[in-house]
Amino acid sequence: MCFLGWTVTVTEELFYDIVNDYEVKRRKREQELEEQLKVEALRRKEELEERRREELRLQKTPGRSNAVSRNCSPARVPKMVAISQPRSASKVLFPSTPGRVPAKVARVQGDKGECSREPTMNTLSPAQARSNMREKREQLKKHVMEHGEKLRREEQERLRLKHVHEEHYCVQEIKTELDEMPSLGEELRRAEEEETNRLRKEEEDRRRLSDEERTKKKEQEARTLELLEAARKEEERRAEEERQRIREEQKIREQAEAEARERQRAEEEEAKLRLNVSCSAELLNRHLANVSLNTSTAHNRTSPNHSSYEMTPDKTYKPATENDYNIEDLSSGDETDSEPDLTLIFGKKKKYPRRGSSGIWESPISHPRQGVGAYQNRLNKRY
Asked: Which has more confidence, 130 or 175?
């Protein structure tokens, strides 16, 4: 292998030594990173514990403190006096309530030898405790996510380097002859060509997939348009059939109405004609009843004047048909109806006497019966 004018003979043992050395360094870096993370987490935990201890040391009951506190109302904060005696640190931190002796007196000695009264511990409220726990959880979650992201990036970098090593430097057989060993420049050029070919192939595959997707999309759109067009034509056909059916029904209904009107008009004309015929026959009968029956002399007598019309013929009574009951016969009202005796069919009805005024109303109380009453009969039966 030739690199910058130097000829290097790469053997299989040397290659695996390089790979193993890289793996050892990587594991060492990971262990150092884990140790640093553990130290950082321990330091943060100690700082948090120290801050909590300091807060507990400085806290006191709001009723016994002159310092502004979150648990103390602003109205209970004492006013600052211009002329006041300087107090010690312990008195400033933990002043006692005027006119009141503390229940327990104790002194706490700090790390630097300072003595102060034992502070009254202020228990955290549930909301503060939940807030502190929430902050802890968020910090821990953030730390875990950062650590996981960092490990993931390192793992990706390791896999990338391993892939590069496997792609460029892993060979099935390494020739020991110098003249058969390819130069580093040729390997790099071949690697670049392979990378270029791979990228070009990926680009072609991507372009082919995009073309196929566009073709499929166009085919799907065309199929959708065909379905919509078919649905529209089917809807138009159904609408046209519905309109045709409505027109046919309207035509049939109009034809039936016209036939009904024509039939009614014919029946009315026929009724009028029968009425005219019956009236003419009645008038003729009355005329014949009033005219003398001595027709022989009338026939023998010659009249100089001739009549301009013929004698009206006699009425011909047509028998009743299925639809004609000879209702227009004028003599039908002269006959008596032969109705049956309804009392024989339904029987006689019981007629109740009409009640008059209240003065003459007959009641059982006003007309008692002779004999023993029903109540007395019940008493006699019992006793």
From this structure: 130
